[in-house]
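Lab notebook, page 48
Experiment: co-folding of the full assembly
Goal: obtain a model of how the components sit together before planning crosslinking
Operator: M.T.
Materials (sequences as entered):
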Amino acid sequence: MNTSRSLASQIVLLAIIIAICVFPFYWMVTTSLKTQIVALEAPPVWIFEPTLSNYREALFEDGVLRTLINSLVIAVSTTLLALLLGVPAAFALARFEFRGKKDLWFWFITNRMVSPIVLALPFFLIARNLGMLDKHVTLILIYLTFNLPIVIWIVTDQFRGIPYDLDEAARLEGASQFTIMRKICLPLAMPGVAVSAIFSFIFSWNELMFGLILTRTEAKTAPAMAVSFMEGYNLPYGKIMATSTLIVIPVLIFALIASKQLVRGLTMGAVK
Amino acid sequence: MRGQASTKTIFAFLGPAVLGLALVGIAPLLYAAWTSLHFFNLTKLKRVEFIGLENYWSVLTDEVFWQAMGRTFFLLCTALPLQLAFGLGIALVLHKPGLTILKTLARLSLVLPMATTYAVVGLLGQVMFNQKFGVMNQLLGGANINWIGDSTNAFAMIIFWDVWQWTPFVALVLLAGLTMVPGEVEEAARLETKSWWTILRYVQLPFLLPGLVAVLILRTADTLKLFDMVFTLTRGGPGAATEFISVMIQRVGFRAFDQGLASAQAIILLIITIVLARIYIRSFYKEV
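Observation: model returned without errors.
Model output:
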């Protein structure tokens, strides 16, 4: 009796947790399927005839498609760049001893915590002077400030888990450090590399402030586009939710894939 | 054994990353420091002039700055206890044995709020908390609450979304701590007492502490960073009711165009962040 009641209360609690987490997404998707007239009905309606017109208009008439492509190009490029620079650095941090290792670590963590507005102010002025406003490459470089530390941290951790004996054996065969990294350690570190790539992609894709300040039209990112729908009096709520849905779906898929590592990544490994 | 590498090798592996990060992460800060020592207004670029520490003096004696700081910490002090309480509750429920499928489902749904684009959270807030056609007032039994246009309500709404988005993070961190408690220790304690509080306090809490410290420091840093969600939801309004520190610096720099003053504010924010990061490092990476 007592246990079945506690079981029932557990089921109810779990159902409430799931409902609270998921409901805003349900509301976002259903609103995106409403016409403007239905979306503005008060009180809101739950049952209506769904339409894809918001998606069609947003994607092909308002140029959301292009901003999604911009976001994709920027997020993928910055992730690849972060891996290219970060993986060798991670190998060095995991395998070599040298002075200043602690300071490097401190610098990475600080980058994780510093407000983007601190960098956005000087970046805007520098980019303006160099004629680099509204260029993809500007965002690709700037996103390194948070991607590079996260890649280096996760991959260093992964390299540390690979037995040193393997390196030793390869060195006796005359392999250089670079060969050891590429041929022996990197294949074994692939899970960590993949997770760090997912994180880097999510953070870049989600970023708003730099996109808002440093782009206008050509390199405009999808979140910045969603914000620009918020001008004026008669807000196109269905369209805003359609754009939001398109932005959020890829992130949620990646986050679910990396869900076991999410907490480790967000705390830079402080919580395993 | 380990670490036999020439300086040249180390530089070859580490150089590109350090150089890249210095280029985008440090050079701009130096430029911000330079700007902060000048009168630098985007609408009056003809008369940029060196004014020493005057911007810093203006910031430190500026009521608006301290009010934004106070507001930011007030948000932290209201949202964080809620996140800790709900997070601990969720973690304890998920930690109980049984109902595996439902618990896996719950754990996966906890991932969703954390990953949601912050800007989209704000947009969702606009739609769901609208006074007339928002679903929130409907769920509250046809209430007629003006969420976005009223100072107190707007603040409460920001707390709501911050708690929605980050309680799962706290819950998963604490859950990770709970699973570190050795099974036989917990079982022995459960034979001794039926009180969940006693078990929490004397058996589980020591394992939760590192996670709690991490949550405390990271939530503080993230609240100082908070921009996207507030910008899309209230733009700091009504008035300055939800103008948190990062939102305020953005307004001063890009809507009032006073880059000199905004840079001074940003440098002060940076110093606070560096102190926080130092504490974080001290707590977690003793033997890097």
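Interpretation: Chain A has a mean pLDDT of 89.
Next step: discuss with group before ordering constructs.
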